[in-house]
Specification:
- With 487 residues, the chain is α+β, with helices and mostly antiparallel strands.
- Among the domains are: 152 residues, PAS domain (Beta-Lactamase), CATH 3.30.450.20; 166 residues, Histidine kinase-like ATPase, C-terminal domain (Heat Shock Protein 90), CATH 3.30.565.
- It has a 5-stranded mixed sheet with strand order 6-8-9-11-10. Strands 1-4-3-2 form a 4-stranded antiparallel sheet.
- Strand 2 and strand 3 form a beta hairpin.
- It is rod-shaped.
Length: 487
């Protein structure tokens, strides 16, 4: 209800300002009218008794007239006394600050003054001259107190406070129920819908009402509909991309298979010749049981050798489903050495595996995809050494932070370092080696997809590939795979 408190606070401030201004103006008008009425009342009372005082003074004497003034003062609410003009300023009952008003005062005409007495009370003095038939000039002093006005002011202040409190209560109740029903409940509904949208729930809600919040709800529903359409479109494009990527990877595997099969054909030719020769011996020669058994054993072993080679080829060309499992990377590298041995031996290239003593090589990966990565890199190394040489593969663990991570948190990685003794990679080509279909090989020896696919597979596993090259020392590929899944 924060909105309620804000609106109520501003509304209260506005009401206080309006009511205060109205009451102030009314108070000023009432005070002026009250003072005017007091002056009018004093003059009327003074005029009504001044004639009687003058007549009594002339007929019965000064003492009788003064007694009549005292009697009038005691019987009424207005204080009345007689003052002489020649002794008036000194005889006036005034506070020191008000005596300046009497310096130019003459008791020859009706005069009204607002003064303070010695106790600080505000008084209204009205002076009415009276003709008593003597040379000396005198006047009636009618004194009225402003205590009634102060009481009236207090009542007006209490009235203003009561009106303000009643208006605040009335407006607060109406505002509370209005905000609760028309604003808070719809806002909570919209906030809940926004949270569900953030969590992926794009369900459209029913719109109630025809105000601005209802328009906002309808806009959010339209947004949800648009997001559903965009989500389906993205899903369709993502599935198509994955399908295309899978086809490209399988095409690259088949291309690699074509390059490997040429070397394996020679590898299969030797056991086939042995099988053929032993079979002819069994058919053409009269062998005893022991010699026949020996030939059969040799045929069986050579057949198993060919079966193993063919199975490795079939496993490599088969399109596997993604399967994350625990794999021994050192054992996987040795299998790849066996698969590439026929092709490498034709170019007088040897393989060397170095594993650090404390290196952890068992991790959770997709074995077939990592096999494709290593085969692509190793085949590039073999093809880069037309004059022969050695391809060294080393396995170590390192604590590193990912170049793609924002927190730079250290993590354990398996580093697969592949170093060849070939011609190296020039600087111009080094910037594009992971670009799809970019290749420096001759036609028929590469598609330009091998390293690009390898780069994508390693990134999907949370790792990366670094490349270093020297024209004199060959190329060095470092594949980093995180150990977090294994841990």
């Amino acid at each position: 209800m924060k909105l309620f408190y804000h609106l109520f606070g501003y509304l209260m401030l506005g009401m206080i300002v309006l009511i205060g201004t109205d009451e102030y103006l009314s108070f000023r008008a009432e005070i002026e009218q009250f003072e005017t009425d007091m002056v009018t009342n004093a003059i009327q009372n003074g005029n009504s008794i001044s004639g009687m005082i003058a007549h009594t003074w002339k007929e019965s004497g000064e003492e009788k007239a003064l007694q009549l003034i005292r009697d009038a003062s005691e019987s009424g609410k207005i204080g009345i006394r007689w003052v002489w003009a020649d002794s008036f300023p000194n005889a006036a009952r005034l506070a020191g600050s008000d005596k300046e008003q009497f310096k130019e005062l003459h008791l020859e005409e009706i005069t009204t003054l607002k003064i303070h007495d010695q106790n600080g009370e505000i008084l209204l003095n009205t002076y009415i001259p009276v003709d008593i038939g003597q040379e000396k000039t005198g006047a009636l002093e009618l004194t009225q107190s402003f205590s009634a006005l102060q009481l009236y002011s207090s009542r007006m202040l209490i009235r203003a406070c009561i009106i303000t409190a009643l208006l605040a209560t009335f407006c607060g109740v109406i505002l509370y129920f209005f905000i609760n029903q028309k604003i808070r409940v719809p806002l909570n509904r919209l906030a809940g819908q926004a949270k569900r949208i953030g969590q992926g729930d794009l369900q459209v809600n029913r719109v109630v009402g025809n105000d601005e919040l209802a328009d906002l709800a309808q806009t959010m529903n339209d947004m949800c509909s648009s997001l559903i359409i965009a989500k389906e479109k993205i899903k369709f494009e993502y599935d198509a991309r994955l399908k295309t990527l899978d086809q490209l990877r399988h095409t690259e595997r088949l291309s690699t298979f074509g390059l490997i099969s040429a070397g394996i054909a020679h590898e299969i030719g030797t056991p086939l010749n042995v099988v053929d020769g032993r079979a002819k011996m069994i058919i053409a020669e009269d062998l005893n049981a022991e010699e026949t058994k020996e030939c059969a054993t040799i045929i069986k072993s050579q057949a198993e050798r060919m079966t193993l080679i063919i199975r490795q080829l079939l496993d490599f060309t088969r399109r596997p489903e993604q399967n994350i499992s625990s794999e021994n990377i050192a054992f996987l590298v040795k299998q790849i050495f066996q698969l590439l041995h026929p092709m490498a031996s034709r170019q007088r290239v040897g393989f060397l595996l170095n594993r650090a003593e404390d290196a952890e090589v068992v991790m959770s990966v997709d074995g077939s995809q990592i096999q494709q990565v290593l085969i692509n890199v190793l085949m590039n190394s073999v093809q880069a050494m037309p004059d022969g040489g050695t391809v060294s593969v080393s396995l170590t663990n390192e604590m590193l932070s990912s170049p793609h991570a924002g927190d730079q948190q250290l993590q354990k990685y398996l580093k697969i370092r592949i170093v060849d003794e070939g011609e190296g990679i020039c600087q111009e080509d080094l910037e594009h080696i992971f670009t799809p279909f970019y290749t420096t090989k001759t036609i028929g020896t590469g598609t330009g997809l091998g390293l690009s696919i390898a780069h994508g597979i390693v990134e999907e596993h949370g790792g990366w590939i670094d490349v270093e090259s020297s024209v004199l020392n060959g190329a060095c590929f470092s594949v980093y795979l995180p150990m977090k899944e294994n841990e």
